[in-house]
Amino acid sequence: MSIAIRKLDSAVPGFREQLSAVLAFEASEDEAIDRAAANILAEVKARGDAAVLEFTQRFDRVQATSVAALEIGHEALQAALAGLPEARRHALQTAADRVRAYHERQKKECGSDGFLYREADGTELGQKVTPLDRVGIYVPGGKAAYPSSVLMNAIPAKVAGVQEVIMVVPTPDGVKNELVLAAAAIAGVDRVFTIGGAQAVGALAYGTATIPQVDKIVGPGNAYVAAAKRRVFGVVGIDMIAGPSEILVICDGATDPDWIAMDLFSQAEHDELAQSILLCPDADYIAKVEASINRLLEDMPRKDVIRTSLTDRGALVKVRDMEEACEIANMIAAEHLEISAQEPQQWADRIRHAGAMFLGRFSSESLGDYCAGPNHVLPTSRTARFSSPLGVYDFQKRSSLIRVSEQGAQTLGRIAAELAYGEGLQAHARSAELRLK
Fold first, then answer.
1. Is 336 a catalytic residue?
2. Of 116, 198, 213, 326, which is the most buried if we count CB atoms within 10 A?
3. Catalytically annotated residue among 336, 338, 353, 376
4. CATH architecture designation of domain 245-385
5. Is 335 a catalytic residue?
6. 180, 145 Cβ separation under 8 angstroms
7. pLDDT tens across 299-336, in order?
8. Are 436 and 429 in contact (CB under 8 A)?
9. What is the DSSP string of 282-304?
Protein backbone atom coordinates (compact mmCIF):
# COMPACT_ATOMS: atom_id res chain seq x y z
CA MET A 1 0.00 0.00 0.00
CA SER A 2 1.50 3.33 -1.07
CA ILE A 3 1.97 6.26 1.30
CA ALA A 4 -0.24 9.29 0.75
CA ILE A 5 2.58 11.74 1.43
CA ARG A 6 1.86 15.38 0.58
CA LYS A 7 3.38 16.79 -2.59
CA LEU A 8 3.72 20.57 -2.68
CA ASP A 9 4.98 22.99 -5.34
CA SER A 10 6.42 26.37 -4.40
CA ALA A 11 5.20 27.83 -7.71
CA VAL A 12 1.55 27.13 -6.90
CA PRO A 13 -0.51 29.97 -5.33
CA GLY A 14 -1.07 29.39 -1.61
CA PHE A 15 2.12 27.35 -1.20
CA ARG A 16 3.27 29.19 1.93
CA GLU A 17 -0.06 28.56 3.62
CA GLN A 18 0.09 24.89 2.65
CA LEU A 19 3.62 24.56 4.01
CA SER A 20 2.67 26.34 7.23
CA ALA A 21 -0.13 23.83 7.69
CA VAL A 22 2.37 20.97 7.34
CA LEU A 23 4.70 22.58 9.88
CA ALA A 24 1.98 23.45 12.38
CA PHE A 25 2.45 21.61 15.63
CA GLU A 26 0.95 22.53 18.96
CA ALA A 27 2.79 21.01 21.87
CA SER A 28 0.18 18.99 23.71
CA GLU A 29 -0.14 20.96 26.90
CA ASP A 30 -2.75 18.56 28.19
CA GLU A 31 -4.22 20.06 31.36
CA ALA A 32 -4.64 16.63 32.93
CA ILE A 33 -0.95 15.81 32.33
CA ASP A 34 0.13 19.18 33.69
CA ARG A 35 -2.04 18.77 36.82
CA ALA A 36 -0.75 15.24 37.38
CA ALA A 37 2.87 16.41 37.04
CA ALA A 38 2.21 19.31 39.42
CA ASN A 39 0.72 16.95 42.02
CA ILE A 40 3.63 14.55 41.75
CA LEU A 41 6.15 17.37 42.11
CA ALA A 42 4.33 18.70 45.17
CA GLU A 43 4.35 15.25 46.79
CA VAL A 44 8.06 14.74 46.10
CA LYS A 45 8.89 18.21 47.42
CA ALA A 46 6.91 17.58 50.59
CA ARG A 47 7.66 13.91 51.29
CA GLY A 48 10.91 13.23 49.45
CA ASP A 49 12.04 9.61 49.29
CA ALA A 50 8.68 8.23 50.45
CA ALA A 51 6.86 9.84 47.54
CA VAL A 52 9.53 8.74 45.06
CA LEU A 53 9.15 5.13 46.26
CA GLU A 54 5.34 5.25 46.03
CA PHE A 55 5.31 6.66 42.49
CA THR A 56 8.01 4.24 41.34
CA GLN A 57 5.92 1.35 42.61
CA ARG A 58 2.73 2.73 41.04
CA PHE A 59 4.06 3.68 37.60
CA ASP A 60 7.02 1.33 37.04
CA ARG A 61 5.82 -1.58 39.19
CA VAL A 62 9.16 -1.69 40.98
CA GLN A 63 9.18 -2.65 44.66
CA ALA A 64 11.95 -1.28 46.86
CA THR A 65 12.35 -0.67 50.57
CA SER A 66 14.35 2.53 50.03
CA VAL A 67 15.46 4.90 47.29
CA ALA A 68 19.01 3.83 48.08
CA ALA A 69 18.05 0.35 46.88
CA LEU A 70 17.19 1.88 43.51
CA GLU A 71 20.74 3.13 42.97
CA ILE A 72 23.00 1.17 40.64
CA GLY A 73 26.61 1.06 41.82
CA HIS A 74 29.76 1.53 39.76
CA GLU A 75 30.51 -2.18 39.83
CA ALA A 76 27.19 -2.96 38.13
CA LEU A 77 27.81 -0.28 35.51
CA GLN A 78 31.24 -1.68 34.73
CA ALA A 79 29.82 -5.20 34.63
CA ALA A 80 27.24 -4.05 32.08
CA LEU A 81 30.03 -2.61 29.96
CA ALA A 82 32.15 -5.74 30.23
CA GLY A 83 29.18 -7.93 29.35
CA LEU A 84 28.51 -6.31 25.99
CA PRO A 85 29.44 -8.16 22.79
CA GLU A 86 32.87 -6.98 21.64
CA ALA A 87 31.59 -5.23 18.50
CA ARG A 88 28.95 -3.29 20.41
CA ARG A 89 31.33 -2.33 23.20
CA HIS A 90 33.83 -1.09 20.64
CA ALA A 91 31.15 0.92 18.83
CA LEU A 92 29.98 2.51 22.08
CA GLN A 93 33.54 3.36 23.14
CA THR A 94 34.41 4.80 19.72
CA ALA A 95 31.27 6.93 19.69
CA ALA A 96 32.07 8.20 23.19
CA ASP A 97 35.63 9.05 22.19
CA ARG A 98 34.40 11.05 19.19
CA VAL A 99 31.75 12.88 21.21
CA ARG A 100 34.35 13.71 23.87
CA ALA A 101 36.91 14.94 21.35
CA TYR A 102 34.37 17.22 19.69
CA HIS A 103 33.24 18.75 22.97
CA GLU A 104 36.79 19.23 24.20
CA ARG A 105 37.43 21.22 21.02
CA GLN A 106 34.16 23.09 21.58
CA LYS A 107 35.24 24.01 25.11
CA LYS A 108 38.49 25.43 23.79
CA GLU A 109 36.88 27.40 20.96
CA CYS A 110 33.85 28.79 22.82
CA GLY A 111 35.59 31.04 25.31
CA SER A 112 35.54 28.68 28.25
CA ASP A 113 38.72 30.18 29.72
CA GLY A 114 37.16 33.57 30.43
CA PHE A 115 39.01 36.85 29.87
CA LEU A 116 40.38 39.92 31.67
CA TYR A 117 41.56 43.27 30.36
CA ARG A 118 42.93 46.46 31.93
CA GLU A 119 41.85 49.97 31.03
CA ALA A 120 44.22 52.97 30.94
CA ASP A 121 43.31 54.08 34.50
CA GLY A 122 43.98 50.63 35.95
CA THR A 123 40.39 49.42 36.09
CA GLU A 124 40.12 45.70 35.26
CA LEU A 125 37.08 44.13 33.61
CA GLY A 126 36.52 40.56 32.57
CA GLN A 127 34.61 37.33 32.86
CA LYS A 128 35.14 34.16 34.86
CA VAL A 129 33.75 30.89 33.49
CA THR A 130 32.92 28.12 35.97
CA PRO A 131 31.15 24.77 35.60
CA LEU A 132 27.92 23.81 37.33
CA ASP A 133 28.46 21.76 40.48
CA ARG A 134 25.88 19.03 39.89
CA VAL A 135 23.76 18.05 36.89
CA GLY A 136 20.88 15.59 36.52
CA ILE A 137 20.42 13.59 33.32
CA TYR A 138 17.06 12.08 32.46
CA VAL A 139 17.30 9.00 30.23
CA PRO A 140 14.09 7.44 28.84
CA GLY A 141 13.31 3.84 29.70
CA GLY A 142 10.51 1.45 28.90
CA LYS A 143 9.70 1.28 25.18
CA ALA A 144 12.72 3.37 24.25
CA ALA A 145 16.30 2.97 25.43
CA TYR A 146 18.85 5.44 24.16
CA PRO A 147 22.47 4.86 25.18
CA SER A 148 23.45 7.53 22.65
CA SER A 149 21.52 10.08 24.72
CA VAL A 150 23.58 9.12 27.78
CA LEU A 151 26.76 9.95 25.86
CA MET A 152 25.40 13.19 24.40
CA ASN A 153 24.20 14.54 27.76
CA ALA A 154 26.85 13.28 30.16
CA ILE A 155 30.05 13.76 28.17
CA PRO A 156 29.76 17.52 27.53
CA ALA A 157 28.88 17.98 31.21
CA LYS A 158 32.05 16.16 32.23
CA VAL A 159 34.14 18.03 29.66
CA ALA A 160 32.75 21.30 31.06
CA GLY A 161 34.04 20.28 34.49
CA VAL A 162 30.79 19.36 36.24
CA GLN A 163 31.76 17.69 39.51
CA GLU A 164 28.84 15.27 39.80
CA VAL A 165 26.52 13.88 37.11
CA ILE A 166 23.46 12.02 38.40
CA MET A 167 21.46 9.91 35.97
CA VAL A 168 17.87 8.80 36.42
CA VAL A 169 16.35 6.12 34.21
CA PRO A 170 13.01 4.34 34.67
CA THR A 171 13.10 0.54 34.63
CA PRO A 172 9.48 -0.64 34.22
CA ASP A 173 8.98 -4.03 35.88
CA GLY A 174 12.61 -3.84 36.98
CA VAL A 175 14.00 -4.46 33.50
CA LYS A 176 17.35 -2.69 33.07
CA ASN A 177 18.91 -1.92 29.70
CA GLU A 178 22.53 -3.06 29.84
CA LEU A 179 23.61 -0.85 26.94
CA VAL A 180 22.31 2.25 28.75
CA LEU A 181 24.20 1.24 31.90
CA ALA A 182 27.34 0.58 29.87
CA ALA A 183 27.04 4.03 28.30
CA ALA A 184 26.82 5.54 31.78
CA ALA A 185 30.06 3.78 32.71
CA ILE A 186 31.87 5.04 29.61
CA ALA A 187 30.54 8.59 29.96
CA GLY A 188 31.69 8.89 33.57
CA VAL A 189 28.26 9.23 35.20
CA ASP A 190 28.75 9.41 38.96
CA ARG A 191 25.45 8.02 40.26
CA VAL A 192 22.53 6.19 38.62
CA PHE A 193 19.04 5.82 40.08
CA THR A 194 16.37 3.61 38.51
CA ILE A 195 13.53 6.09 38.80
CA GLY A 196 11.68 8.00 36.12
CA GLY A 197 8.73 10.23 35.31
CA ALA A 198 7.80 13.50 36.98
CA GLN A 199 8.88 12.03 40.32
CA ALA A 200 12.46 11.71 39.09
CA VAL A 201 12.42 15.32 37.86
CA GLY A 202 11.09 16.41 41.25
CA ALA A 203 13.72 14.44 43.14
CA LEU A 204 16.50 16.03 41.09
CA ALA A 205 15.01 19.53 41.34
CA TYR A 206 14.22 19.59 45.06
CA GLY A 207 16.51 16.91 46.43
CA THR A 208 15.54 14.14 48.85
CA ALA A 209 17.28 12.41 51.73
CA THR A 210 18.94 10.09 49.19
CA ILE A 211 19.05 12.02 45.91
CA PRO A 212 20.92 15.33 46.05
CA GLN A 213 19.49 18.46 44.46
CA VAL A 214 21.05 19.31 41.10
CA ASP A 215 21.64 22.65 39.42
CA LYS A 216 20.33 21.69 35.99
CA ILE A 217 18.26 18.88 34.45
CA VAL A 218 18.86 17.77 30.86
CA GLY A 219 17.61 14.95 28.70
CA PRO A 220 14.39 13.91 26.92
CA GLY A 221 11.31 12.27 28.39
CA ASN A 222 7.60 11.73 27.91
CA ALA A 223 4.82 14.32 28.28
CA TYR A 224 4.87 14.05 32.10
CA VAL A 225 8.62 14.61 32.18
CA ALA A 226 8.29 17.62 29.87
CA ALA A 227 5.51 19.10 32.02
CA ALA A 228 7.58 18.57 35.16
CA LYS A 229 10.66 20.19 33.60
CA ARG A 230 8.59 23.24 32.68
CA ARG A 231 7.37 23.55 36.25
CA VAL A 232 10.75 23.19 37.98
CA PHE A 233 12.50 25.67 35.67
CA GLY A 234 13.68 28.51 37.87
CA VAL A 235 14.35 26.21 40.81
CA VAL A 236 16.89 24.50 38.55
CA GLY A 237 17.99 25.08 34.97
CA ILE A 238 16.75 22.89 32.13
CA ASP A 239 18.10 22.28 28.64
CA MET A 240 14.94 22.63 26.52
CA ILE A 241 11.44 21.28 26.02
CA ALA A 242 11.95 19.12 22.96
CA GLY A 243 9.26 18.56 20.36
CA PRO A 244 9.00 15.72 17.82
CA SER A 245 12.12 14.91 15.80
CA GLU A 246 12.55 16.56 12.38
CA ILE A 247 14.59 16.14 9.23
CA LEU A 248 14.68 18.49 6.25
CA VAL A 249 16.56 17.36 3.16
CA ILE A 250 17.65 19.74 0.41
CA CYS A 251 18.69 17.68 -2.62
CA ASP A 252 19.88 18.72 -6.06
CA GLY A 253 18.38 15.59 -7.62
CA ALA A 254 21.60 13.61 -8.11
CA THR A 255 21.70 11.49 -4.93
CA ASP A 256 20.55 7.87 -5.01
CA PRO A 257 16.80 8.22 -4.28
CA ASP A 258 16.92 5.18 -2.00
CA TRP A 259 19.38 7.04 0.21
CA ILE A 260 17.06 10.02 0.54
CA ALA A 261 14.01 7.84 1.17
CA MET A 262 15.83 6.07 3.99
CA ASP A 263 17.02 9.38 5.43
CA LEU A 264 13.38 10.49 5.59
CA PHE A 265 12.51 7.16 7.26
CA SER A 266 15.26 7.68 9.84
CA GLN A 267 13.27 10.42 11.53
CA ALA A 268 9.79 9.16 10.68
CA GLU A 269 10.47 5.94 12.60
CA HIS A 270 10.93 7.86 15.88
CA ASP A 271 7.19 8.38 16.33
CA GLU A 272 4.02 9.33 14.51
CA LEU A 273 4.55 13.05 15.16
CA ALA A 274 8.07 13.16 13.69
CA GLN A 275 8.48 15.24 10.54
CA SER A 276 10.37 14.45 7.33
CA ILE A 277 10.45 16.91 4.41
CA LEU A 278 12.31 16.94 1.09
CA LEU A 279 13.01 20.11 -0.92
CA CYS A 280 14.17 19.57 -4.50
CA PRO A 281 14.00 21.52 -7.81
CA ASP A 282 13.65 18.33 -9.91
CA ALA A 283 10.09 16.97 -10.22
CA ASP A 284 11.26 13.71 -11.82
CA TYR A 285 13.65 13.09 -8.96
CA ILE A 286 10.90 13.71 -6.40
CA ALA A 287 8.85 11.03 -8.16
CA LYS A 288 11.80 8.64 -7.88
CA VAL A 289 12.11 9.31 -4.14
CA GLU A 290 8.39 8.68 -3.72
CA ALA A 291 8.77 5.38 -5.58
CA SER A 292 11.68 4.45 -3.30
CA ILE A 293 9.60 5.29 -0.24
CA ASN A 294 6.79 2.98 -1.33
CA ARG A 295 9.16 0.19 -2.34
CA LEU A 296 11.34 0.28 0.79
CA LEU A 297 8.63 0.79 3.40
CA GLU A 298 7.45 -2.81 3.66
CA ASP A 299 10.87 -3.99 4.85
CA MET A 300 10.89 -1.54 7.77
CA PRO A 301 10.09 -3.11 11.18
CA ARG A 302 8.53 0.23 12.22
CA LYS A 303 6.64 0.67 8.95
CA ASP A 304 3.34 1.56 10.61
CA VAL A 305 4.95 4.42 12.55
CA ILE A 306 6.78 5.60 9.42
CA ARG A 307 3.62 5.47 7.34
CA THR A 308 1.65 7.56 9.84
CA SER A 309 4.46 10.08 10.26
CA LEU A 310 4.96 10.61 6.53
CA THR A 311 1.23 10.73 5.83
CA ASP A 312 0.35 13.18 8.60
CA ARG A 313 3.43 15.40 8.76
CA GLY A 314 5.71 14.58 5.81
CA ALA A 315 6.04 16.41 2.48
CA LEU A 316 7.84 16.22 -0.85
CA VAL A 317 8.28 19.80 -2.05
CA LYS A 318 9.13 20.93 -5.60
CA VAL A 319 11.03 24.23 -5.44
CA ARG A 320 12.08 26.60 -8.22
CA ASP A 321 15.79 26.21 -7.53
CA MET A 322 18.34 25.51 -4.80
CA GLU A 323 18.37 29.19 -3.78
CA GLU A 324 14.66 29.02 -2.97
CA ALA A 325 15.21 25.74 -1.14
CA CYS A 326 17.61 27.55 1.19
CA GLU A 327 15.10 30.36 1.76
CA ILE A 328 12.43 27.84 2.70
CA ALA A 329 14.90 25.96 4.91
CA ASN A 330 15.55 29.14 6.88
CA MET A 331 11.83 29.54 7.42
CA ILE A 332 11.45 25.92 8.56
CA ALA A 333 14.52 26.12 10.87
CA ALA A 334 14.69 22.33 11.13
CA GLU A 335 16.32 20.26 13.84
CA HIS A 336 18.31 18.26 11.25
CA LEU A 337 19.13 19.68 7.81
CA GLU A 338 20.76 17.53 5.15
CA ILE A 339 22.19 19.32 2.11
CA SER A 340 22.64 16.44 -0.32
CA ALA A 341 24.28 18.23 -3.23
CA GLN A 342 27.46 18.32 -5.29
CA GLU A 343 28.76 21.53 -3.69
CA PRO A 344 27.00 21.60 -0.33
CA GLN A 345 29.05 24.39 1.23
CA GLN A 346 27.76 27.05 -1.16
CA TRP A 347 24.21 26.25 0.02
CA ALA A 348 25.23 25.90 3.67
CA ASP A 349 26.54 29.46 3.49
CA ARG A 350 22.96 30.57 2.84
CA ILE A 351 21.52 28.76 5.88
CA ARG A 352 20.95 30.81 9.03
CA HIS A 353 18.65 28.55 11.01
CA ALA A 354 19.22 24.83 11.61
CA GLY A 355 19.98 22.68 14.63
CA ALA A 356 22.61 20.63 12.80
CA MET A 357 23.68 20.64 9.15
CA PHE A 358 24.80 17.51 7.32
CA LEU A 359 26.74 18.44 4.21
CA GLY A 360 27.22 16.20 1.17
CA ARG A 361 25.75 12.96 -0.05
CA PHE A 362 27.53 10.73 2.49
CA SER A 363 26.52 12.74 5.59
CA SER A 364 23.43 10.87 6.69
CA GLU A 365 21.68 12.28 9.72
CA SER A 366 21.92 8.94 11.48
CA LEU A 367 25.69 9.35 11.82
CA GLY A 368 25.07 12.51 13.81
CA ASP A 369 22.69 10.67 16.11
CA TYR A 370 25.34 8.22 17.18
CA CYS A 371 28.97 8.82 16.48
CA ALA A 372 29.94 11.80 14.30
CA GLY A 373 30.82 13.82 17.41
CA PRO A 374 28.59 16.94 17.54
CA ASN A 375 25.71 16.77 19.99
CA HIS A 376 22.43 15.22 18.90
CA VAL A 377 20.38 17.16 21.45
CA LEU A 378 19.04 19.84 19.12
CA PRO A 379 16.37 22.55 19.00
CA THR A 380 13.05 21.47 17.44
CA SER A 381 9.78 23.10 16.38
CA ARG A 382 11.51 26.07 14.69
CA THR A 383 13.40 27.00 17.87
CA ALA A 384 16.67 26.74 15.90
CA ARG A 385 15.87 30.38 15.05
CA PHE A 386 17.10 31.27 18.54
CA SER A 387 18.52 28.12 20.15
CA SER A 388 21.65 26.00 19.82
CA PRO A 389 22.61 22.34 20.18
CA LEU A 390 23.37 21.13 23.69
CA GLY A 391 27.03 21.78 24.38
CA VAL A 392 29.76 22.39 26.92
CA TYR A 393 28.48 25.96 27.29
CA ASP A 394 25.18 24.63 28.70
CA PHE A 395 27.04 23.24 31.70
CA GLN A 396 28.92 26.42 32.50
CA LYS A 397 27.98 29.85 33.76
CA ARG A 398 29.74 33.16 33.57
CA SER A 399 30.51 35.71 36.28
CA SER A 400 31.44 39.28 35.45
CA LEU A 401 34.66 40.60 36.97
CA ILE A 402 34.85 44.29 37.90
CA ARG A 403 37.86 45.77 39.72
CA VAL A 404 37.67 49.55 39.60
CA SER A 405 40.85 51.53 40.32
CA GLU A 406 40.81 54.67 42.49
CA GLN A 407 41.28 56.77 39.36
CA GLY A 408 38.56 54.88 37.51
CA ALA A 409 36.12 55.46 40.37
CA GLN A 410 36.43 59.23 39.82
CA THR A 411 35.20 58.97 36.25
CA LEU A 412 32.72 56.14 36.62
CA GLY A 413 31.37 57.51 39.92
CA ARG A 414 30.25 60.78 38.34
CA ILE A 415 28.60 58.95 35.42
CA ALA A 416 26.81 56.50 37.73
CA ALA A 417 25.67 59.24 40.11
CA GLU A 418 24.20 61.31 37.28
CA LEU A 419 22.25 58.35 35.94
CA ALA A 420 21.15 57.25 39.44
CA TYR A 421 19.75 60.69 40.23
CA GLY A 422 17.91 60.51 36.93
CA GLU A 423 16.31 57.26 38.04
CA GLY A 424 15.48 58.64 41.48
CA LEU A 425 17.80 56.23 43.28
CA GLN A 426 19.67 58.49 45.65
CA ALA A 427 21.47 55.76 47.61
CA HIS A 428 22.95 54.48 44.36
CA ALA A 429 24.19 57.98 43.58
CA ARG A 430 25.61 58.60 47.06
CA SER A 431 27.35 55.18 47.06
CA ALA A 432 29.28 56.27 43.99
CA GLU A 433 29.84 59.85 45.17
CA LEU A 434 31.33 58.83 48.54
CA ARG A 435 34.32 57.44 46.64
CA LEU A 436 34.96 60.68 44.78
CA LYS A 437 37.84 62.85 45.88
1. yes
2. 198
3. 336
4. 3-Layer(aba) Sandwich (3.40)
5. yes
6. yes
7. 999 999 999 999 999 999 999 999 999 999 999 999 99
8. no
9. -HHHHHHHHHHHHHHGGG-TTHH
